[in-house]
Amino acid sequence: MTTLTIEIKDKDAGIVKEFLSKIGAKVKAEPTSQITFEIAQALKEIKEMQQGKRKPLGLKDI
Q1: Residues with Cβ within 8 Å of residue 17, at least 6 apart in sequence
Q2: HSE (CB half, 13 Å, CA atoms) of 62?
Q3: CA nearest neighbour of 5 among 28, 23, 24
């Protein structure tokens, strides 16, 4: 068995995972991509709050 580590763009991940599953490979995705997505989402929400497009969060939202 061989272990291969590759780095690809998030948008291409689905295609690569599909191909690898067809040849019977085990796919292990790093959680950093999810963390990166959540950080980007949080920054987007903060920007929307600053622009007045979104209501600021209060203690009830936590």
Answers
A1: 27, 29
A2: 2
A3: 28
